[in-house]
Amino acid sequence: MTMDSDTDSDEEMNADTEETAKASSNLKIIDLEALKQHDLKEPEKLKKFFEWTNEYYNMTFHVEEEHKFPEDLDKICDFFADNNITVLALTNMIYHHRYEPSEDIISKEDWAKICLVVDLKFGGDLKEDISVPFSSGTCGVSVSGVRPEDCCDYARLTNTMILSKISRANAAERKVDFTHKGLEKLTGISKDWYKYSSGTLALQLLDETVLLSIQAEFDGLSWTNARDKMRTKINAACDKLMKGNNGEIKSEIEEHSLLKVYKKGFAVWWRKRKDAIADEFAKQTGPTS
């Protein structure tokens, strides 16, 4: 019996013998108690928080120490301080998906990295029972541990790790293996999740609020009971968001920094979206004379 799959391997990743970093040990870098010191002004606390976030990200995802983000750190810290957004307020806003600054303040890529670290650091403190394997530092999710309500977290982690990998200076290190097994090796998340979740990765980039709404419908169900219906809904949402004029995919989607990589890496899934959008347009316009 042929396995139904959304993915197609276009690039192969070199064998990775490096031991996976443990998130739990790296998270100790972010010392929340230190940020409660009264002798530190808020811009200084914000700067220290971002510096710790940068260090944690580089260590956990095997990025060179020279990689620094976000850009214009002093400007960003002053902006948040001027708007009375403290470190405590900012981390809660991020975790509860209540705030995203404009790209005039911080790039989408840098913001995604910060959001990922906040999720990993605060998963057990602000929202119960979320991404337990990540917040506990085990960095792995077997198929029995996959839950529909964690899919957005899995997508954030995967998208950020792939973005980090393709952004490396060394060309050999930029290659990504987009097979289910390759992605499992990269992230520790079960390959069975990736079999059903190309659309989930794309939707997290297109509109995370839509993804969160869909996964909420399957909260409490097992992954095996939810995965087919969930994939269908998520792919339909992607079709709607990707649809441009004349039955084609929007040009800005084609040129998105990460989605254009997925166009090749998830070639089967992308082709299905392209065909679905074209078919819908054909139905709406009717036969031509």
Tell me about this structure.
There is one protein chain. The protein has 289 residues and is an all-alpha fold. The chain folds into two domains: 21-127, no CATH class; 140-289, no CATH class. 56% of the residues lie in helices and 0% in strands. It is built from 15 helices and no strands. The radius of gyration is 20 Å and the shape is globular. Residues 7-29 and 124-139 have low confidence and may be disordered.
CA(first)-CA(last) distance: 42 Å
Give the strand tally. Answer: 0
Q: Helix and strand string, N-terminal first?
A: HHHHHHHHHHHHHHH
Q: Would you tell me the structural class of the helices and strands? A: mainly alpha
Shape: globular
Unreliable sequence segments: 7-29, 124-139
Helix content: 55-70%
Q: How would a crystallographer describe the biggest sheet?
A: none
- Our Rg estimate from Cα atoms comes to 20 Å
Q: Work out the strand percent.
A: under 5%
Total tally of structural domains: 2
- DSSP summary: helix tally: 15
Please give a handful of descriptors for the protein shown.
289 residues, mainly alpha, 2 domains, 15 helices
Compact overview of the structure:
The chain has 289 residues and is an all-alpha fold. It is built from 15 helices and no strands.
Give the SSE map.
Blueprint: H1 23-26, H2 42-60, H3 73-82, H4 87-95, H5 108-126, H6 132-135, H7 151-166, H8 180-187, H9 191-195, H10 198-206, H11 208-216, H12 223-242, H13 251-254, H14 259-265, H15 267-285
